[in-house]
Amino acid sequence: MALKQLLDLGSSSAFYTLLSQQSRSGIFLLQFWFFFLGKYLLTAAVIFWVFPDSWVQSLWHGEQKSLVALAMMATAMQFDMWPNAMQMPESQRKTVKVQPIYIGALLMQVLSVAGLYWTNYLTLGNYLASVAILWFFAATLAAFLYEPERDPEKFQNTKQTLREYIEFCKPIAPFLFVGFISDFLDRWMLQEWGGSQQQGFLAISQQISGVTLIITASIIKMVWKEVAEALQRDDLESAKQIYMVTKKNMFLVGAFIACGVIPWSEEVLRLVYGNEYIPAWGVLVAMMMYSIHQSLGQFEGAFIMASGKTRIGLIFNTAMIPFGPMVSYLLLSPTHLSELLPPMGALGLALKMVLFQIFSVNVIGVLIGKVFGWRHEWVYQLQTIAVLLSFGISVKMVISVLPIAPLAALISSVVVYGIVVCIAIVLYPRIFGFGQFVFANGIKLKIKGVFNGVR
Predict the structure, then answer these.
(1) Residue 121 domain-assigned?
(2) Which one, of 299, 274, 281, lies nearest residue 364 by Cα?
(3) Are residues 159 and 176 in the same domain?
(4) Average pLDDT for residues 103-124, to the nearest whole number?
């Protein structure tokens, strides 16, 4: 995954932004996909025919080259080719058409795992191979939904296209390169000093917390498209309103999910993964908190990419990245601070991610505000989390008293928690940072009118 980030260097973001601005020709698309294929073939050649075996053994902790190749292929298809292919129809507002392909691919992935399991062929190699094949076909289907520009007068030559990519990627490429080193070192150190168990704790916590990102991913793409188009026609007011409203809504969605899951962390792990994973509850709590601001960070990043002002926050982010591995080393290494603080494993890495994410998201928000001339708001973040978390804890305390099965208690808690939060949003939207833009104000007035009529 870290290697994918290194190979991308902002090209996928540039691809989507350029597609969102206007329709592009088939030649433009072919140029991108030739680049995509070439970068992975070149990387594979370097790793497997240039790197000494000792390097591969050290970087991937003794794994076989064939398994590393399958992992790279699966990662390339699911987390690189698919997102880029999905962006193509979404740039033409065909989200409704591409989402069934995404849902279908996810269902097929579940069925393929089940099939491999039932036939006793569920090995890591077979799993990775099935993932690569499945997402390759899904990406191909999504790409064919795009309608390329057919007017020859609007075609761009290769030099002009290359200049646009370079102009877009040049400011962020160094940041992504340093980010690749940081991400790789974090996971490498966790494997070295925490082992597979701690990697597992972090991985399952990321999977559960990733529910928030699944919900917000499509929203981010739509906002990216609309902002890019609005700024292309110099409509700054529309871009501002999209930014302000969507940002608070996305934060509310993320906080709603996280604060509902956090009080039930142990129960969720027991029901989904089994008793042996209950010790990961602290990691899950930290990752749920991380997911709230992660969606916010992705939204701000999408806004920056859509605006084309890729230098926003570049110096800050690049300066922050080296501190990440340093903090990870202190928290994970058994030879430093061990007398004051024992190695924290996955929990230490998750806490570091939370703190760094909260700090960076708000700093970038301030910088975006300065560039575009609006004020950064942050108090609503504290208010939203405090209110929703108190709701989640209160609901659990009430439900836990009832003599019902754990699964029934969890489902009941979700229902009650959702109702309580919806009522709070309707009646007191300002607690969550909403004012005149939120529809809840109108509903609130209607509810008050009904009560006045009854009286």
Answers:
(1) yes
(2) 299
(3) no
(4) 94
Overall average pLDDT of the 13-41 stretch:
87
- Give the structural domain span for 55: 1-166
Closest CA to 353 of 206, 255, 180, 192: 206
Give the list of residues 6+ apart from residue 193 with CB closer than 8 angstroms, or none: 332, 333, 334, 343, 345
Q: Kindly report which listed range (76-90, 270-284, 374-388, 421-435) carries the lowest average pLDDT score.
A: 421-435
| One domain for residues 206 and 71 | no
> Considering its fold, how many domains does the chain have in total?
2
pTM of the entire predicted model: 0.67
CA dist 17 → 27, 49, 156, 239 (Å):
17, 36, 16, 15
Partner residues linked to 149 by β-bridges: 25
- With respect to residue 337, please indicate whether it lies within any of the assigned structural domains: yes
Q: Using CB atoms within 10 Å of the CB of residue 100, give its burial: 0 to 12 exposed, 13 to 18 middle, 19+ buried.
A: exposed
Q: Please name the residues in contact with 171: beta carbons below 8 A apart, sequence gap of 6 or more.
A: 310, 311, 314
The rounded radius of gyration (Å) of the Cα atoms in the chain is 24
Task: Select from 340, 6, 422 the least CA-distant residue to 174.
Answer: 6
Find residue 454's DSSP bridge partners: none
Question: Using alpha carbons only, what angle is made at residue 287 by residues 313 and 337, rounded to the nearest 5 degrees?
Answer: 85
121 plus 178 within the same structural domain:
no
> What mean pLDDT is predicted for residues 362-371?
86
